[in-house]
Amino acid sequence: MKVRVHVSLKPGVLDPQGRAIHHSLEGLGFSGVNDVRQGKLIELDVDEGVTDEALDEMCRKLLANMVIENYRVERVAQKEASE
Amino acid sequence: MSTFRSAVVTFPGSNCDRDMAVAIEQVCGGEVLRVWHGDAELPSGLDFIALPGGFSYGDYLRSGAMAARSPIMQAIVDAAGRGVPVLGVCNGFQVLTESGLLPGALMRNAGIRFVCRDARLAVENAQSVFTAGWRQGEEIVIPVAHHDGNFFADDATLDRLEGEGRVAFRYCDQVNGSARQIAGVLNDAGNVLGMMPHPERAIEKAQGGSDGRKLFESVMNALASA
């Protein structure tokens, strides 16, 4: 099954890349953008038997750096994954 | 004292490993062994281990993240636990934070750009095995060259580091957005140092300065007097 791991910077952690993207958007003339934060999306294809605990451990041990990042694990329904 | 025995680790993408080996050889002499990231064990009887700058595993995911999980790192964590002095410079510093040997994280420079220039540093702790050759508060010049050198830790961690004298070096001017201008930190026991500036690039006049020599001299002297 497909699992999506969303990794984002913790609130309060400066995101220079997000700020640069924000600046570029403004340069292109887009208005109304208040803030930009850049994160990562990591897609895993795992066996059905892989537990939430195991996924959590993967995130804490490697996929996210818990000093600066938060993560959210999303199991993707079969139908949505095949679309 | 027996021969100074050190090891420099090479990860795929390390590019300061030779400079590091030459610096140790010139300042400390002895035997400088080269260790590969895929090795599961370190040579026996090491007096000093250095993780060099450059890149590692393409710095995929986060700088130093892959290297911190490579086979050799478990041996380095064990050696650090036994009290062997471990120095991580630049990417080596990133590897040490990613492996949990040092607190905090190194993020993209606040100014986005790669920074490559001489940096003025203040020696904030002149009592560690790495810094005892300097005077407390002494100002030195060591070059920096990095993209991800912006040291971050939460306020409680920063307060603890300051309180315990674990800030080894501080930038005199803002270089990369680092919290409290921290350029180098020590672990709890004081035998692991991570720093973004490159002391191995400042060991003789021909390199533009020799302020980095004292770091290697300090390690050697600490060992000789141990």
Give the percentage of residues in beta strands of chain B.
25-35%
- Residues in helices of chain A, as a percent range: 25-40%
> Structural class of the secondary structure composition of chain B?
alpha/beta
Shape label of chain A: elongated
CATH class call of chain B = Alpha Beta
Strand order of the largest sheet of chain A: 2-1-3
Tell me the number of helical segments of chain A per DSSP (H or I, 4 or more residues long): 3
Overall residue-averaged pLDDT value of chain A: 93
Unreliable sequence segments of chain A: none
Average of pLDDT of chain B: 96
Strand order of the largest sheet of chain B: 2-1-3-4-11-10-9-6-7
List the helices and strands and how they pair.
The complex is a heterodimer of chains A (83) and B (226).
Chain A: E1 2-9, H1 16-27, E2 40-45, H2 52-63, E3 69-76, H3 78-82
Chain B: E1 5-10, H1 17-27, E2 31-36, E3 48-51, H2 71-81, E4 86-89, H3 91-98, E5 105-107, E6 115-123, E7 139-146, E8 150-152, H4 155-163, E9 167-171, E10 182-186, E11 192-195, H5 213-225
Parallel strand pairs in B: 1-2, 1-3, 3-4, 4-11
Antiparallel strand pairs in B: 5-8, 6-7, 6-9, 9-10, 10-11
What does it look like?
The complex is a heterodimer of chains A (83) and B (226). With 83 residues, chain A is α+β, with helices and mostly antiparallel strands. Helices cover 35% and strands 27% of the residues of chain A. Chain A has one domain (2-82): Mth169, Chain: A. In chain A, strands 2-1-3 form a three-stranded antiparallel sheet. The model of chain B has no long low-confidence stretch (mean pLDDT 96). Chain B has one domain (5-225): 3-Layer(aba) Sandwich (Rossmann fold). Chain B has helices spanning 17-27, 71-81, 91-98, 155-163, 213-225; strands at 5-10, 31-36, 48-51, 86-89, 105-107, 115-123, 139-146, 150-152, 167-171, 182-186, 192-195. The A-B interface holds A 13-14, 16-17, 20, 61-63, 65, 67-68 and B 61-62, 65, 69, 97-98, 103-105, 107-112, 150, 152-154, 177.
